[in-house]
């Protein structure tokens, strides 16, 4: 197979480079955008068959974009990230690219327009490497719900990568892309970032435009990114954030440089630890890793505050009412009339709908559409949707009370490290329960991150969650960046700043050897 | 089937009779074409009549009518997208990605549409909600691309208004009766696309040009009791919307769509079970549909049956309403808040708006109020006060498109008084227009031309009967001037008193019996002689002069 294509040594180490490093190498002409894209494409070609992180890769198109980036640089019109490759989650509409959202329903959908996020990335000169795999319509926590098959965790091919942005996380973790766009509705950036050992950021609701982002639950969906470091996330957020009049929930704020506070010392930082996040259900190894991380931050001068988010438990039922309700409405448009999958035989309009939707949607999507339809039904609205909205308000109040006494909140992202493929796919409730630490943030519209913090007993990555107050992205990134400057040693092996080269390469070798 | 076989037969028999007598008529009050065009049907039964007719008799069933009006907002672009609004464009040529509900597209509210709804609300004396909300109403249909319509179910933009309208009432049905209907709410919502069914090839084609066009849904409380009232209310609504420019109001083109909720009950009893009548394309058909439906329900109840809560479609050819096959009555719309749109805020003044909001994005009541044009009711009052015309004439002037402008143009250009002008406009002009089915703008006689005729008459150059003759001639040969016609047909007034003396003498000589009668005291016979003189002069003799001469000769 194509895996035989050898890497140039200097370039194959380049795949571990951060955005900042790549930017410098491109600027100093050590490498061209075309060469860089070529190397990543080679790596994708070699490793993607095992990882399934990409749904669509188009070498010619990518190289053409890269050539354009080089031309821009030659013309002196390059920005900081011009020529840097990026993987886009298959949820962002991108003109001329299949935008499937992980669904059979949109397998034939070539977007005729660009999402705001895509426009911003294109304008910055980022080079699209391909379209990252995901749970169908972003519904899932394991990436097993993709029509294009499950994504594998690069750290352990038997483990799930997390979801729904599993393709983005696996791509960045396996160095198939230096950075990837992603979305987070109930943890879909933070949880896969945690499981794959990369840094992920979900901004405040309204900071990144949802225009062109295929909607799952509109009041919760928010675009963000994954990269190796917090600094890279800051650079990428500078590209992606910004007011967009085409999204009425987009917030009109002054532009800010999200990397401005990275170097700030953490002395005096008040770190809130919510009791409810360290209670029953949290795996011992994950708990230990988070405790260690908090200990490291204390050494940097952070002060720990005990806080309470009493309605945390209620976030699960509230989320699994609101999100399916909105999804059932948002996904009504997929009817086979104008685009997307249409059944081949039907006798009337009703049957066309029924068959097209039955064939086009996977089981988790159907489940959520049915739940959503049920909770919005006449006579049930007050008991479910309205009550869930009230809980949502309570949860937001919990956070504002907590932030009165601390600057950031720390905790785990998920109760356990990545579980095995197939382990929970038969039990949706177990799957939903694993979202306990991430859902509240979406319900409240807050920003949050996942930062690699260590490895579980079975050697799988575990992330530390940092939750900030509204619009405190720069503060969160500051905390994450300072944390990532520490030579954190986990099991005597890992330097999380550049990822565990040994591990990545081992995974890589294992795969190449298999090939 | 409910009821006994005999009951069924009676019912059918009654229905057949209804079909036979069901010939709708449009009648016009009094002589000529003045006052309000009265829409009534042979089965009209207004509550007011019923009540006045039999106050002490056992209470009889009366109709209860409420309306839901969908008014297409007259704006350049759609409610939530930048697509143009147009009705003659080729199918699917005015469709944005949002209108086609492509994945990832989002609604952006069109401020112009909001202002149209606010202005309409103000004109209908509504309370404008400073904060209103958008909701999704779900149903699957091929011309509803998103699978839901964005509407305002919970908190609409305007509530609690009134519409005052008038129709003819009284014993002779020649008095203007003014009534009002409460406006429950005005909500902003999206229009759907159109499904075009090709039965021959058994396929359905979808045109999304209309999808997403802004609508105002105006919900009227069931304060009306018959078709005539409903038609008059809708006509007034049309005039108001047209005056505001917020809706073009053409029912035949679907710019104004009216659904009627109809039930019957005995006054004092709770309301009966209602039906919703759809597919009504004119004010006339609205009256027909409602009156048919009231009558049908009465027949059903009087023969012991029950009215079904259903949606019925009006068939303009037969004048009947028939149950619609759709399952709309059973549909659960699963309303939910629209998460893509923040609350819609309307501010009293620019100064009360929060800082940071761009002025171009603000909807400010003060500004909209300032732009409110003269409303039809104010206009009528102004006409009555300014020109001293009858209230019913003011209705005709305002209700007929362009007639008021025509009238005022004539008044400006003639020495004749407004009351004289109104007579000409109501009788001569309207008469010919209606006879030939023309609109005011299509009149072959311009206001200036009519003013000339009236001036000739005022100056004593032609008599009033000649003036009418000139009018008729001018209608046939619109290129000419009134003067030309007078000259060509030798219609000028005969002022030569010798000549008139001669003719009068001739008439007096040839009618000795009449002269005798006049001398005997029957002065009325003088008119007969005057007529004969005018006949002789082809109506050109100055009637004052003729009378004086005849009086002298018969004394």
From TrEMBL, chain A:
Top-tier EC class: ligase
Catalysed reaction, written as an equation: L-glutamyl-tRNA(Gln) + L-glutamine + ATP + H2O = L-glutaminyl-tRNA(Gln) + L-glutamate + ADP + phosphate + H(+)
Active-site residue numbers: 89, 164, 188
Gene3D superfamilies registered for this protein in UniProt: Amidase signature (AS) domain
Domain (Amidase) ranges: 37-477
Subunit-level organization: Subunit of the heterotrimeric GatCAB amidotransferase (AdT) complex, composed of A (QRSL1), B (GATB) and C (GATC) subunits.
Role noted for this protein: Allows the formation of correctly charged Gln-tRNA(Gln) through the transamidation of misacylated Glu-tRNA(Gln) in the mitochondria. The reaction takes place in the presence of glutamine and ATP through an activated gamma-phospho-Glu-tRNA(Gln).
Name of the protein in its database record: Glutamyl-tRNA(Gln) amidotransferase subunit A, mitochondrial
Organism: Hucho hucho (huchen)
Upper classification of the organism: Eukaryota, Metazoa, Chordata, Craniata, Vertebrata
TrEMBL record, chain B:
Localization per Swiss-Prot or TrEMBL: Mitochondrion
UniProt KW Ribonucleoprotein keyword: no
GO cellular component: glutamyl-tRNA(Gln) amidotransferase complex; mitochondrion
Domain of life (superkingdom): Eukaryota
The protein's Enzyme Commission number: 6.3.5.-
Keywords assigned by UniProt, alphabetized: ATP-binding, Ligase, Mitochondrion, Nucleotide-binding, Protein biosynthesis
Main location: mitochondrion
Catalytic reactions on record: L-aspartyl-tRNA(Asn) + L-glutamine + ATP + H2O = L-asparaginyl-tRNA(Asn) + L-glutamate + ADP + phosphate + 2 H(+); L-glutamyl-tRNA(Gln) + L-glutamine + ATP + H2O = L-glutaminyl-tRNA(Gln) + L-glutamate + ADP + phosphate + H(+)
GO molecular function term, any single one: glutaminyl-tRNA synthase (glutamine-hydrolyzing) activity
Span of domain Asn/Gln amidotransferase: 405-554
Signal peptide: none
Membrane among keywords: no
Gene3D superfamilies: 1.10.10.410, GatB domain, N-terminal subdomain
SUPFAM superfamilies reported in the protein's UniProt record: GatB/YqeY motif (SSF89095), Glutamine synthetase/guanido kinase (SSF55931)
SMART domains attached to this UniProt entry: GatB_Yqey (SM00845)
Described function: Allows the formation of correctly charged Asn-tRNA(Asn) or Gln-tRNA(Gln) through the transamidation of misacylated Asp-tRNA(Asn) or Glu-tRNA(Gln) in organisms which lack either or both of asparaginyl-tRNA or glutaminyl-tRNA synthetases. The reaction takes place in the presence of glutamine and ATP through an activated phospho-Asp-tRNA(Asn) or phospho-Glu-tRNA(Gln).
Family indicated by similarity: Belongs to the GatB/GatE family. GatB subfamily.
Subunit: Subunit of the heterotrimeric GatCAB amidotransferase (AdT) complex, composed of A (QRSL1), B (GATB) and C (GATC) subunits.
Protein name: Glutamyl-tRNA(Gln) amidotransferase subunit B, mitochondrial
Originating organism: Hucho hucho (huchen)
């Amino acid at each position: 197979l194509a895996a035989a294509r050898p890497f140039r040594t200097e370039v194959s180490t380049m795949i571990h480079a951060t955005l900042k490093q790549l930017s410098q190498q491109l600027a100093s002409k050590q490498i061209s955008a075309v060469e860089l894209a070529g190397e990543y494409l080679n790596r994708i070609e070699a490793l993607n068959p095992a990882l399934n992180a990409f749904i669509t890769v188009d070498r010619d198109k990518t190289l053409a974009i890269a050539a354009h980036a080089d031309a821009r640089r030659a013309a002196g019109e390059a920005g900081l990230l011009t020529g840097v490759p990026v993987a886009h989650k298959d949820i962002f509409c991108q003109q001329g690219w299949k935008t499937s959202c992980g669904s059979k329903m949109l397998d034939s959908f070539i977007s005729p327009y660009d999402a705001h996020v895509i426009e911003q990335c294109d304008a910055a000169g980022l080079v699209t490497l391909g379209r990252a795999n995901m749970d169908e319509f972003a519904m899932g926590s394991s990436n097993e719900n993709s029509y294009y098959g499950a994504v594998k965790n690069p750290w352990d091919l038997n483990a799930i990568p997390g979801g729904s942005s599993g393709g983005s996380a696996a791509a960045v973790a396996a160095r198939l892309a230096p950075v990837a766009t992603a979305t987070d509705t109930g943890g879909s950036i933070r949880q896969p970032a945690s499981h794959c050992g990369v840094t992920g950021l979900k901004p405040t609701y309204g900071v990144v435009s949802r225009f062109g982002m295929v909607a799952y639950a509109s009041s919760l969906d928010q675009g963000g990114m994954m990269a190796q470091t917090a600094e890279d996330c800051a650079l990428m957020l500078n590209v992606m954030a910004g007011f967009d009049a085409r999204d009425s929930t987009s917030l009109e704020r002054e532009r800010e440089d999200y990397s401005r506070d990275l170097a700030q010392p953490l002395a005096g930082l008040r770190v809130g630890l919510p009791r409810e996040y360290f209670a029953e259900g949290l795996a011992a190894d994950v708990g230990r890793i988070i405790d260690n991380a908090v200990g490291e931050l204390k050494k940097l001068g952070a002060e720990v505050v005990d806080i309470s988010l009493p309605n945390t438990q209620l976030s699960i039922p509230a989320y699994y009412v609101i999100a399916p309700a909105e999804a059932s409405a948002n996904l009504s448009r997929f009817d086979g009339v104008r685009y997307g999958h249409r059944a081949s035989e039907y006798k009337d309009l009703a049957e066309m709908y029924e068959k097209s939707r039955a064939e086009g949607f996977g089981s988790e999507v159907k489940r959520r559409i049915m739940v959503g339809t049920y909770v919005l039904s006449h006579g049930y609205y007050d008991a479910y949707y309205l009550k869930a909205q009230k809980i949502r308000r309570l949860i937001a109040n919990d956070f504002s009370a907590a932030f009165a006494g601390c600057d950031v909140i720390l905790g785990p992202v998920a109760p356990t490290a990545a579980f095995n493929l197939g382990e929970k796919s038969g039990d949706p409730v177990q799957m939903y329960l694993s979202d306990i630490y991430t859902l509240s943030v979406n319900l409240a519209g807050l920003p949050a991150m996942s930062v690699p913090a260590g490895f579980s007993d079975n050697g799988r990555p575990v992330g530390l969650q940092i939750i900030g107050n509204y619009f405190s992205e720069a503060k969160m990134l500051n905390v994450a960046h300072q944390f990532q400057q520490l030579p954190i040693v986990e099991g005597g092996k890992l330097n999380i700043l550049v990822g565990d080269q040994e591990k990545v390469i081992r995974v890589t070798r294992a795969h190449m050897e298999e090939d | 089937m409910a009821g006994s076989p005999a009951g069924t037969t009676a019912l059918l028999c009654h229905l057949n009779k209804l079909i036979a007598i069901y010939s709708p008529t449009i009648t016009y009050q009094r002589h000529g074409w003045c006052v309000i065009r009265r829409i009534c049907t042979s089965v009209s039964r207004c509550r007011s009549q019923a009540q006045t007719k039999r106050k002490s008799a056992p209470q009889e069933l009366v109709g209860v009518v409420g309306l839901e009006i969908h008014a297409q907002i007259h704006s350049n672009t759609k409610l939530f997208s930048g697509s143009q609004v147009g009705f003659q464009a080729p199918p699917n040529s005015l469709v944005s990605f949002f209108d086609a509900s492509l994945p990832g597209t989002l609604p952006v509210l069109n401020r112009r549409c909001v202002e149209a709804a606010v202005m309409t609300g103000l004109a209908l004396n509504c309370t404008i909600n400073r904060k209103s909300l958008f909701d999704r109403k779900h149903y699957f249909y091929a011309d509803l691309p998103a699978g839901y319509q964005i509407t305002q179910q919970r908190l609409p933009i305007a509530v609690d208004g009134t519409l005052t309208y008038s129709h003819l009432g009284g014993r002779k049905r020649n008095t203007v009766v003014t009534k009002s209907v409460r406006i429950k709410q005005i909500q902003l919502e999206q229009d759907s696309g159109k499904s075009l069914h090709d039965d021959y090839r058994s396929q359905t084609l979808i045109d999304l040009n209309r999808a997403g066009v802004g609508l105002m849904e105006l919900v009227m409380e069931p304060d009306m009791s018959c078709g005539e009232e409903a038609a008059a209310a809708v006509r007034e609504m049309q005039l108001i919307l047209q005056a505001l420019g917020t809706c073009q109001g053409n029912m035949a083109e679907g710019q104004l769509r009216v659904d009627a909720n109809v039930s019957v009950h005995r006054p004092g009893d709770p309301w009966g079970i209602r039906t919703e009548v759809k597919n009504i394309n004119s004010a006339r058909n609205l009256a027909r549909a409602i009156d048919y439906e009231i009558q049908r329900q009465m027949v059903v109840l009087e023969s012991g049956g029950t009215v079904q809560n259903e949606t019925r479609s009006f068939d303009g050819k037969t004048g009947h309403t028939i149950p619609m096959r759709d399952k709309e009555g059973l549909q659960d719309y699963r309303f939910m808040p629209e998460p893509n749109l923040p609350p819609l805020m309307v501010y009293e003044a620019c100064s009360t708006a929060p800082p940071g909001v761009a002025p171009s994005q603000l909807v400010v009541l003060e500004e909209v109020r300032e732009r409110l044009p003269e409303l039809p009711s104010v206009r009528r009052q102004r006409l009555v006060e300014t020109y001293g015309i009858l209230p019913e004439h003011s209705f005709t002037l305002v209700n007929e498109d362009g007639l008021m402008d025509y009238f005022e143009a004539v008044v400006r250009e003639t020495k004749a008084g407004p009351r004289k002008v109104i007579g000409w406009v109501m009788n001569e002009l309207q008469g010919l227009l209606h006879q030939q089915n023309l609109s005011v703008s299509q009149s072959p006689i311009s206001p200036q031309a009519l003013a000339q005729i009236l001036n000739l008459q005022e100056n004593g150059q032609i008599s009033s009967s000649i003036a009418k003759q000139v009018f008729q001639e001018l209608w046939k040969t619109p290129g000419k001037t009134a003067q030309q016609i007078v000259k060509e047909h030798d219609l000028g007034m005969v002022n030569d008193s010798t000549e008139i003396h001669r003719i009068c003498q001739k008439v007096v000589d040839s009618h000795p019996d009449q002269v005798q009668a006049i001398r005997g005291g029957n002065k009325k016979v003088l008119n007969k002689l005057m007529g004969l003189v005018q006949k002789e002069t082809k109506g050109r003799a100055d009637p004052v002069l003729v009378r004086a001469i005849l009086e002298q000769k018969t004394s």
